């Protein structure tokens, strides 16, 4: 069975190819990107792949993929994920750090807002210096996404090293402090504060960036943004009428933060009639799955009101956080926190000015930068 190929420039710039697919985004169900790389857009095949994190398909799961010995879905990882989920639930209702930065340049400053508003649940009694170090690493991550290059990579590496060192010192100081199950689970799982700090930093960065990205996409789409608008365009004041939660769901349908989910084949197997070899990369594209015209009417339009009566069977192909044992543990927090901030932050309906023309489809789907016209942003 032949495997359809996509535009050869897909790896360098995937957005034009995905937006230009004239047929249903889920047809064909598998596209070949390279000899060992396949793009999967069919929801049934995608669910089958994502259900595995070890055999036959292996996963490395952000934010813990860089941590030695971390296997998503393994029994050893469950206590950490359970504790993280509980800490995030607590963050929605628990005490928050008082000092919060002004929201000016989105989505960068939105990440910092999440860190300072909810960070006390994950970093109880952390000093301002710890928060500053983590915030600097977050800022450098955004800069690297937008302007990849050696200098940006070195600056990010330096900022990440400083944040890891600050978090390691924090864990050493609070190692004997009872009452925080998440920190206790990290130290129990990894043993030494250095590795635990690496995992803690990964969790903080992933949660803050995912939550800020979901919020930023929602604000941007509320104002009528669409691909192709030039930097400098001013979009008029938003007049959303749908509930905040439905607007977040619709924003994540069109622009899922985890727009591409990765697995690697460990054994020879079969996928949709195709032979898959050990080492082959399988890329499950939720961006395409969420725009299936078989499921959604006006699939490319932002219509939050559709969530009052979503189409039958939509859950099979709506996977903004993945599915199975490797799914994002912070899914509930991301949606709830974004809706909470949409309802509580002042001025979000004000006109906005676009600072970039295009989103960035890297590790996550990051919206183009923008600012509320009531704020200033250093571009």
From TrEMBL:
The lineage of its organism: Bacteria, Bacillati, Actinomycetota, Actinomycetes, Micromonosporales. Coiled coil: none annotated. Belongs to the cytochrome P450 family. This is Cytochrome P450. InterPro entries: Cyt_P450, Cyt_P450_B, Cyt_P450_sf, Cytochrome_P450_monoxygenase. It comes from the Bacteria. Gene3D superfamilies: Cytochrome P450. GO terms for molecular function: heme binding; iron ion binding; monooxygenase activity; oxidoreductase activity, acting on paired donors, with incorporation or reduction of molecular oxygen.
């Amino acid at each position: 069975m032949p495997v359809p190929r996509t535009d050869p420039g897909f790896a360098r710039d995937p957005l034009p190819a995905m937006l230009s697919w004239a047929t249903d985004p889920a047809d064909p169900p598998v596209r070949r990107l390279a000899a060992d790389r396949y793009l999967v857009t069919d929801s049934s095949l995608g669910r089958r792949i994502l259900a595995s994190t070890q055999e036959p398909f292996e996963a490395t799961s952000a934010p813990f993929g860089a941590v030695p010995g971390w296997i998503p879905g393994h029994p050893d990882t469950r206590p950490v994920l359970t504790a993280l989920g509980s800490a995030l639930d607590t963050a929605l209702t628990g005490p928050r750090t008082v000092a919060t930065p002004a929201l000016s340049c989105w989505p960068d400053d939105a990440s910092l807002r999440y860190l300072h508003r909810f960070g006390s649940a994950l970093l109880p009694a952390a000093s301002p210096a710890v928060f500053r170090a983590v915030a600097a690493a977050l800022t450098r991550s955004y800069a690297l996404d937008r302007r990849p290059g050696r200098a940006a990579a070195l600056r990010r590496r330096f900022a990440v090293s400083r944040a890891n060192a600050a978090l390691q010192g924090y864990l050493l100081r609070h190692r004997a402090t009872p009452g925080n199950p998440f920190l206790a689970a990290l130290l129990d799982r990894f043993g030494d504060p250095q590795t635990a700090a690496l995992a803690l930093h990964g969790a903080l960065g992933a949660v803050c960036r995912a939550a800020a990205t979901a919020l930023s996409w929602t604000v941007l789409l509320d104002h009528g943004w669409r691909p192709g608008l030039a930097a400098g365009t001013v979009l008029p004041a938003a007049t959303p009428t749908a509930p905040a939660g439905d607007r977040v769901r619709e924003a994540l349908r069109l622009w899922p933060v985890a727009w591409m989910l990765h697995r690697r084949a460990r054994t020879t197997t079969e996928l949709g009639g195709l032979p898959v070899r050990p080492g082959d990369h399988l890329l499950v594209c939720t961006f395409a799955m969420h725009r299936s015209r078989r499921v959604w009417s006006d699939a490319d339009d932002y219509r939050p009101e559709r969530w009052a009566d979503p189409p039958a069977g939509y859950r099979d192909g709506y996977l903004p956080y993945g599915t199975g044992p490797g799914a994002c543990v912070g899914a509930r927090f991301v949606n709830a926190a974004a809706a909470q901030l949409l309802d509580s932050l002042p001025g979000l309906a004000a006109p906005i000015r676009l600072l970039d023309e295009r989103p960035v489809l890297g590790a996550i789907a990051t919206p183009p930068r923008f600012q509320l016209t009531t704020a200033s942003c250093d571009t």
